[in-house]
Give the backbone structure.
Amino acid sequence: MTAPLPLQRLTDQLCVAPQLTPDAMAAAAAAGFRSVINNRPDFEGGPDQPTSAAIEAAALAAGLRYAHLPVAGGYQSPEEIAAFARLLAELPAPVLAFCRSGARSTRLFMAASQLG
């Protein structure tokens, strides 16, 4: 049995989570998510962090759409914020976005929602 996903709901269409593993993609699909956004650069947490390619393969196998928008923890550029807003507009909802703790994905969403 897999552990429940550590989700924080920001809207009816978007939740954020800390680092997810390839194994969590089936649980995300079972929970009703249709898309996943990975906001964490590969190897940011060292060699034990799952790569975007491994997570993407598991997401696609689970029937999810997948996007990798790696952004730094301390600063998200206007271009990165706009790219996150585009992903939220284009990807099938509900969307699950994740990073190391969930805070960076939350900041991206908060900034993207100010774009009007």
The chain has a mean pLDDT of 95.
